[in-house]
Design a protein that fits this description.
- The chain is mostly beta strands.
- It has no helices and eleven strands.
- The strands form two sheets. Strands 2, 4, 5, 6, 9, 10 and 11 form a seven-stranded mixed beta sheet that branches. Strands 1-3-8-7 form a four-stranded antiparallel beta sheet, with no helix packed on it.
- Strand 7 (68-73) and strand 8 (78-83) form a beta hairpin.
- The N and C termini lie far apart (40 Å).
Length: 123
């Protein structure tokens, strides 16, 4: 059984930092791209960026560039999303996902999903 278990997140103040981890089991983790998404209340799930199978991490969303970073550790079957200088508009449920197809920004390109982690940023 494939599982992506997320941890971290929480409620923070604007300007604070928080991280979300994503630990996989039941799959050959290094064969999968790890994507990160978020879904704010009443909005569609949006793509933040991804880490390629053997490294090469990229943030795509302009609103978080320079503040968010993505990493992975294949030896630990884990992906990471580090969020710095958080803003109230970053409040959302954050998801990791593992996928092999394209386009990389599409939710349909990811076969497995974490359970989601709430991040709430207050001003």
């Amino acid at each position: 059984q494939v599982q992506l278990i997320q941890s971290g997140g929480g409620s923070v103040q604007a300007g604070d930092s928080v991280s979300v981890s994503c630990t996989a089991s039941g799959l050959a983790f290094s064969n999968y791209r790890v994507g990160w998404f978020r879904e704010a209340a009443g909005k569609e799930r949006e793509f933040l960026g991804y880490s390629a199978r053997y490294g090469g991490n990229q943030i795509y969303r302009d609103s978080v560039k320079g503040r968010f970073t993505i990493a992975r550790d294949n030896a630990k079957n884990a992906g990471y999303l580090q969020m710095n200088d958080l803003k109230p508009e970053d409040t959302a449920i954050y998801y990791c996902a593992a996928g092999t197809t394209s386009p990389i920004h599409s939710i349909h390109a990811y076969e497995f999903w974490g359970q989601g982690t709430q991040v709430t940023v207050s001003s």
